[in-house]
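A reminder before we start the practical. When you read a complex entry, don't treat the lines as separate problems. The point of joint prediction is that each chain is placed relative to the others, so the output describes one connected object in space. Small molecules and nucleic acid strands, if listed, are placed in the same frame. In the example below there are two entries. Take a minute to note the order of the lines before looking further.
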Amino acid sequence: MVGVEAVGPYRLLRTDRGELEPGVPGQFFMLRTAGLLLPRPMSLCLAPPGELAFLIDPVGPGTRALASAEVGDAIDVLGPLGNGFRLDVACPLLVGGGVGVAPFPHLAEHLRGAPVVLGFRTAWHAEAAALLPGAEVVLGPRLVTEAIPAGHDVLGCGPEPMLRAVAALEPSAQLAWEAPMACGFGACFGCVVEIDGRLRRLCVDGPVLPGRVVGATSEAPRERTAV
Amino acid sequence: MILNASGCLDALAAPDVARGLDAYVTKTVTPLPREGNAPARIAETEGAMLNSIGLANPGIDVFAGETLSRLLELGVPLWVSVGGFRASDYAEVCGRLEAAPVDVLELNVSCPNVTAPDAVVAEIVAAARAATTKPLYAKLSPHLPDLPSAAAAAAEAGADGLTLVNTLRGLALDERTLHPVLSTAAGGLSGPALRPVALAAVHACYRATALPIVGVGGVSSGRHALELVAAGAAAVAVGTALFADPAAAARIRAELAAELAAHGFADLDAARGIAHAGPGRSLSELTKTAANQQVY
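Here is the predicted structure of the whole assembly.
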């Protein structure tokens, strides 16, 4: 770890890049710090020279452990993994929600000048919009989908309800999904989501997929066995 | 000898990881394709992970017709994990692989909830034995009430080796909702917390049969591998540790060599079973006994 910055409620972890390549925007890395048995998947946020930086939302035990890492701490970084965004789009529009802003700074370096619309719950969360100067910011309860102009090639990342709403508006949108993963390289079969009607590994087939193909995920409501 | 634990590596997705092993053990293959359980399938808990993958696999037709040839191209000795829900399922999969250049068939026998577990283990092993001439390893559940007795039943029914142990059943609740994290509620517990369980199982079964044992459960260092060998294992499999460290096999192999040297053992055979040394037994005597163990 070579740097840590608070960005609203999030933490931007700057790691020494070592021999690792930043990969294609939307690809992810597995991060593990002391106290974690399993690494956690995080999309690359920034790739300044010599560094790989990741935006962490400390919402559970794993992300809290990562977010509490300090400069000088050892951190395992494996990647880049999975399939990123296709960059050959005519009229890109980046649509993000909450910590879903994470892959966009790196993506915006490849799609210079692309407009960005970001939705956040609160002004505090919206401090992360500073990572993308010029982005239009939508604050709750207004929805980011209300601010999507027609006629764009949407590249999206955010919470699952937002991704589903974007997919309904723009079925061909490229959306970055997430799922719990133990390995990130196809070994554990833990990260399956329903893709084109079949359970498939998000780490191998995704995480960026056309909005229309994704069905059930671990976040989707499902029937629970009565107890 | 370092293997992967079944279900902890897709050799086609990570061929370099598989090539670092002395043998690659496939995910469990069943007669019919299985999509597996709904997400969420994994959770981390203190010192362990839980999984409920649900034996997702393409079924024996696709495995034998498509997957197998691609796995053989890796050039790594191949163990196929065989699963099912009745003895005839195991026999069917084993029979279909009889002519294939597969080194070992590992029977994923996990039947903690039956009234006569030894008889069920024996029935499955015997059915597989009748269907194949290949070496058969029985992978047993640590839930079995009397593991040495089940191991002896497996040996009597024709098993050539044991894999000890499979996962333990565990449950994780969501931090906020207090609902089970996994879609199936409970799942299989693996990782560091399973290691003493595996060690006890290997230790208990070492004298119960003359079969070679693959020790598996929570191994992430050479020291862990050495301890399983000392308890009686002839080989060691790495599972959960591979998720965080794909290069774990090579590292563990190097650490194990250093551990053996540090303890003055000439090789693995010299260390095998050393944990069973009583105060009255000399090291050379034990080493002799260990060397006489049948080793695959």
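Discuss with your neighbour: DSSP finds eleven helices and twelve strands in chain B. What might explain this?
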